[in-house]
Amino acid sequence: MKKIGILLLIATLAFVGCDKKGVNTKDDSNVIVVVGDEKITENELQEKIDKLPPQYKEYSQTEQGRQTLIDEMVVRKILKQEAIKNGIEDTEAYKKDLEGAKEDLLINHIVNQKIVEGVKLSDSELKAEYEKNKERFKTEEQVKAAHILIMVSDEMTEKEKAEAYKKAKKILSEVTPENFNEMAKKYSEGPTAPNGGELGWFNKSTMVKEFADAAFTGVPEKIYGSVVKTQFGYHIIFVEDKKEAGYLTFEEVKPSLEKELLNKKRAEEYKKWIEKLKKEYLKK
Q: What pTM was estimated for this model as a whole?
């Protein structure tokens, strides 16, 4: 029955809109719209916005997003009042579902109180876990680079390959760090050409050996001194920056580490708590 209700609500939202003439955000009574014998206020709307996930909160700040939320609230009020008018509250099916919903709410609240809010981690615990498992947060040496690719293939003649190499050599003689982006867009035949040849940050293992050897031995902010040949063709490489191998800092890993450890600790505490409650409530 719950699934049918949800589907009905979604379908209704697609066709029902709140007349914008009824929206009055400047009214002293704080009422946005009146739906039957109920009012939707700015405070009620804000409460709904506050409960939204971050990505939807941003959307709710737009005129369209705000109106979508108001429309949804309008439809819910309409359906609620229609249900009451049709005596749904007095049906056995409703009463049964209501008891189930009450049970679920009670369970959710006690688990939230005892486990979610009751189990915390201190910074000292997190730091100890970080130091204990520091190897998990090891980072490889990385390079940020861009390239200009003059492609060659097995189908090309030796003369065509030689022309490609000659073209690459000429580009190398003309390119500089300052004009690299423009030159890559103009001459590169690779898929990164529209982005000025940008490859972003990468580990040595993610590139073919010839390219990686050149990029990782190159000097940051300099064009690599020779044309590099790989299975894809001839590359002119601009080594933009480098990061030495090392470790992510505690602050960098803290949010994900805290989430991971909290979930683990809460699961352990929940299991112990349930075992304790079983001894208290189960009569032999």
A: 0.53
